[in-house]
Amino acid sequence: MPGLRFYVLLTCLFLLNAGHPQGMNRLPVLLTDSLKAHKEGFALHTFSWRFHTMDGRDYSDPAIPDSTWAVTTTAFGRTGQPNGWHGSGWFRLWLKADDNLIDKVLAFRISQTGAAEIYLDGKKIGEAGKIGKTKRETHSARAPFSVYPFILSDHRQHLLAVRYVNEQPPFPEYIAFRLWAGTYEQLASRALDSLKMNSFLLASIGAQLAFVLLHLALFAFYPKQRLNLYYSLFLFATSAVLYLRYLTVGTSDPYLQRITADLFETGIIVAAFLAGILLYGVSDDHLPRKRILISAVLGSLTLLDYFLQYRNASGATIFWLEIFYFLLVMADGLFALVRAILRRKPRIWLIGAGMLILTLFYLVVGSDIFGLMNGNDELIGKWMSIGLLAIPLSFSVYLALNFSDVNRSLSARLKEVQELSELSLAQETEKNRILAGQADQLEKTVAARTLEVRSQAQKLREMDALKSRFIVNLTHEFRTPLSLIIGPAGLIAENAGTDAERKQGRLIKENAQQLLLLINQLLDLSKLEEGKMEIVNAEADILGIATAVLLPFSNAAMQKQLTLALKSRFSKLRGVVDEGKLTMILRNVLSNAIKFSLPGGEILVTVDLEKAQQPTALVFTVADQGMGISAAKLPYVFDRFYQADASDTRSNEGSGIGLALARELVELMNGTIAIASTENVGTVVRIRLPVNMTLANIGDGDLSLQAEKGAIQTEEKDDLTNDGPLLLIIEDHDQLRAFISETLNVKFRTLTARNGEEGIQLAKKYIPDLVITDLMMPGMDGYEVCGKLKTQELTSHIPVMMVTAKNALESRNKGWSAGADAYLSKPFEPAELLALADGLIGNRLLLQERYRREEAWKPAASALPPQELRFLEKVRNLIHSNLANELFGVDQLCDSIGLSKAQLHRKLKNTLGHSPGDLIRMIRLQQALQLLKSGELTVAEIAYSVGFGSPASFSTSFSNYFGYAPRDVKNDH
């Protein structure tokens, strides 16, 4: 099939094989031998015709003399036009036939782009298009497969007259017409053959499109094999070119032919370019970008030359620069194939052999450079049909052999797994044999029994270590197959035809994800055992971490009718800790508590500080009302792979990894973990971690998650009428945008935008409290959205969260540089999204609290971005410069800043926690306080200097704001 890339060029090339023009004779004679020598018909357009302009008179009558008419040929374009040609006229030619053609059915065939009427001895024998009385009634039409029969009954001269109109020629160098004469059988047979050849293109197009769908499906199933994609694109391009060729040859509309001819030329260049990419893809593992760029530039220049030089002015279907580009791309592609063959790339020589065979067919048959085909289109088509099989055959063999290699590789891997299983079984058998021997030996003597026990215990530890390493190594091998299970299972769950199938798909996916979690825990245990796990401490919100851990378990808790709550005597708690490992510890302990809790019970998570010992320690307590653990089994619950109930009838599944991993992580962080349990009463796990605390604010009451639990149980509803924080979601994927909006509507008001441009406009209009934007979007991406929001005064204060599937460090650094405040990796949990949004909005509220203090205009340099600080400084300067102006208010401030009241109100409210009016009044009063402290002016003078209309109103406002009267201001205030 790759050989079809040449089919278009071959079709165009052998159409160029036309006969040489005949000499200009005074009177053409239709001879039997001449007709046999010219299979396409006797070319009458090469003879001398007589021309007369159209003046309303019928010049088809032989009695009308034409000796004074202009002499011309009918194959003229912009040059060679007869005198008096203005888009219409009569053309006449006298002809006769030899004895063998008298009374035989003859025929004419015409090729033109205008409207024509054909007369013989004054009688109309055919027409192409329609010639009306006016220009509007005249319609041009081609007749590519039509013949017009006639009979010559004597040896005398007969008049052939053609009335022709072509006032707006689609091809400037093909204005007039070409006319052939021959036997009816000869010309009808040729027209039928041409129609069959053109119709055959549709069958070829259908076959290629079937292969396009097949290889696109293969690419979707296995995206790593991009060769299927390149091949599909190439086949689609060649199918399009073949269809354009079909229209160009077969259409009756000459103006449509003009369009399809240009598109045909464009398609040939595109197909040749994609053919080069296909050859590069077969030859190399990675596409050579420079070569592809050069090929694209040369192809573009070739097309530019075609359109600038109007290469198709005469209706030709190919030009030599295009052939040169095609051969250049093929030569470079073949060179890449040769290099791949020299590198001994497995079986690449098959593709090279197919390309070589097809190239030889192209040169010897398609182009007929040696003249072996004698211009026989039918013979060329048959041989080229055989030659075109070279590439599909070689390509199919190549893919079949590659598939065979993959199959053998999988078989070998399966054999390795079987051998490993047999080895594990043999080890277990050997262990059992050794244990049996130990039992026999222990019965003989106490001394020997003690010695044997110690010896065998050592051997068992070594075998256990070997087994652990074996399991860890095996888990690495499981990750890729699990990924290939989770992906298709998700597709089944989403796209299955029945509810049962979708349920099965979800079941497969959920269990595969559970296996993946287990594998990740095994790998973490391996890292801990080998000492490769490192502590990465950073300042974090402790209560935020605990909340983020609890939220994902809310659904599981509700399914078991459990009450899940978080309590703490602190309203704010921040410290330097490894957030990832703390999350893992709490998640494993909480998972265990939910797993072994009885329906209707309560799980209480408390967070506290312990300062009795140094350093200060965080204390987490997880208490449940579950089935409890017996005292005999309690010492072993932190051992790896230990299960308190290991029987086959146990009611709760488990791997024995979670608590073991939690203990090792706690010890890695220099902490302690302890467990207390009573059967049928419950279990309490206490975790103590030394932490350098940076913030610990005692609140008015306990922090509880009871409200969140209720919210989770409530059906999600959009509510844009409340006064909660407003979030803007910018996401081009409709379903994901709706999902994020529905998730956040639980606690926030939301706005949505389909792209970056729309998102920027909404952000300017509504000034949201938080912007959540996708990273990769058409048009304006997340980096650009973030950059524009952070560089505009109106939106520079808004925190931005980027949602992305690109987790590389380079991508994150680029986001930080653009001003992003947080990253959320896909896929994500709704609780993670809510917690992150809460954290960002919470940080903004902390800044607002800071600016409510008396020294609101003296923040730390790192408190706000420079752009936002410049904006606030601008506002402050405007207010200070108009302090004495009693009429200066919110309207004047908005005009000076260039923002509407609503925009300025939301920006200042979100940044400082103050409305514009409150801010103006606060600055007036703060300035008054400074003046009062200086003692240089009276209260009345100060009142007027800061813009108050009277000392009385000033005193009232001052007392309400500071809590004491102006006269009470002393140096100690």
TrEMBL record:
Cleavable signal peptide: none
Gene3D superfamilies: 1.10.287.130, 3.40.50.2300, Galactose-binding domain-like, Histidine kinase-like ATPase, C-terminal domain, Homeodomain-like
Transmembrane segment boundaries: 200-222, 229-247, 259-280, 292-311, 323-342, 349-371
Domain Histidine kinase: 473-693
Keyword Kinase: yes
Pfam families cross-referenced by the UniProt entry: HATPase_c, HisKA, HTH_18, Response_reg
Listed GO MF terms: DNA-binding transcription factor activity; phosphorelay sensor kinase activity; sequence-specific DNA binding
PROSITE patterns, alphabetized: HIS_KIN, HTH_ARAC_FAMILY_1, HTH_ARAC_FAMILY_2, RESPONSE_REGULATORY
Segments forming domain HTH araC/xylS-type: 873-972
First-level EC class: transferase
Sites of 4-aspartylphosphate modification: 774
Superkingdom of this protein's organism: Bacteria
Response regulatory domain mapped to chain residues: 726-841
The enzyme's E.C. designation: 2.7.13.3
Catalytic activity: ATP + protein L-histidine = ADP + protein N-phospho-L-histidine
Swiss-Prot/TrEMBL keywords: DNA-binding, Kinase, Membrane, Phosphoprotein, Transcription, Transcription regulation, Transferase, Transmembrane, Transmembrane helix
SUPFAM superfamilies for the chain: ATPase domain of HSP90 chaperone/DNA topoisomerase II/histidine kinase, CheY-like, Homeodomain-like, Homodimeric domain of signal transducing histidine kinase
This protein's record includes keyword ATP-binding: no
PANTHER family with a match to the protein in the record: HYBRID SIGNAL TRANSDUCTION HISTIDINE KINASE C (PTHR43547:SF2), TWO-COMPONENT HISTIDINE KINASE (PTHR43547)
Name of protein: histidine kinase
Organism: Mucilaginibacter gossypii
Organism lineage: Bacteria, Pseudomonadati, Bacteroidota, Sphingobacteriia, Sphingobacteriales
